[in-house]
Description:
295 residues, mainly alpha, Farnesyl Diphosphate Synthase
Amino acid sequence: MNAHQFQAYLKEKKLLVEEHMQILMNQMEIPPSSLRSAMEYSLFAGGKRIRPILLLATVEDTGMEIAGALDAACALEFLHTYSLIHDDLPAMDDDEYRRGKLTNHMVFGEALAILAGDALLTEAFGITAKADLTPETKVALLAELAIRSGSRGMVAGQVLDLEAEEHSISLEELELVHRHKTGDLITFAVWSGAVIAGSNKEELLHYTQYAESLGLAFQIQDDILDVIGDEAKLGKKTGGDEKLQKSTYVSLLGLNGAHQKLHETLEQARYALRQLGKEDGLLWQFIDYMEKRDS
């Protein structure tokens, strides 16, 4: 698959995920229309849908059909969207724009934005529980999703990130923040796709190593783009990390050092895929995609 074909793949799967998320929303009876509006506002506000596509790509790389994985993939995007709504709140990153649109609390107010996030989070577990997968697979996914998204995962990373504001932290501490805040949901995406596909223990280890490296690379790239990125393309203001006096890969390593760290981290992801014998599949294409985005 060349770069053009991979871009077409991403576009196709993005549309598939968004269509299925709308089906899931249509199946929900949500009495307050204001709550449904707030949920759908952020859920369909755009974005690349990288996490659900990673889950589907992992399944496809094993040669399996993705139909049974689609609910789980969309549930992950529900949960990710909740995290973005809460992350944008004044008490957190205090952002006015997300993906080129006003953030949820700017449109619906803080209280409804918080509740819309809570609702998306809760629905994510319900969608996973009702997915067309074996009971054993669903239990495994639900347990891991709780770990990766909660106090031992993404939420822990968000707390560490808040506590790191306005003072310097080491590179090791920064990596811990982002392995949880950004990386854990990306790791879950690949891990759960591998579980759905029936991967064995050793394969799951390599898939996890790949995903952890890829997740860290996403954050390094975000730090770089916050300095040199195009606001129109990013859909949000740049320079936010400096405004909040956050330690970043750029502030700790310099711009050239951050680029080098990104390259090293992506090579670690490639190494993990080599152990799986998957050097020409969709997951490999994600690495090439990130390198081209950084060039």
